[in-house]
Write a structure and sequence with these properties.
The chain is mainly alpha-helical. It has a domain of 48 residues. The protein is built from 4 helices and no strands.
């Protein structure tokens, strides 16, 4: 488990430059989806109510929070790893 946490907190230094773009794109998608859960009721609570989820308000809030944190993690991990990719081709 310690190796997995270390791998997430210290990005590899030998990846291609396209990795940065992919992380930013994935982070942007998660951030927009997480924000939609809070802004539009039919995207969060309404959708989960129609699907029959128990406690849809809690579930939509937790889902929006989780999606936003995943996005921030991907974007911040990219910002931390950006300096390592400067010399790669």
């Amino acid at each position: 488990m310690k190796n997995l946490i270390n791998w997430f907190l210290n990005p590899p230094v030998d990846g291609p430059r396209a990795t940065i773009l992919l992380r930013l794109m994935a982070g942007g998608v998660f951030l927009s989806e997480g924000t939609l859960k809070f802004v539009y009721p039919n995207q969060g609570v309404g959708r989960l109510t129609k699907l029959g989820f128990p406690a849809p308000h809690f579930t939509a809030t937790a889902d929006g929070w989780l999606l936003s944190r995943i996005a921030l993690f991907a974007i911040l991990r990219d910002a931390k790893g950006r300096e390592h990719f400067e010399g790669c081709d």
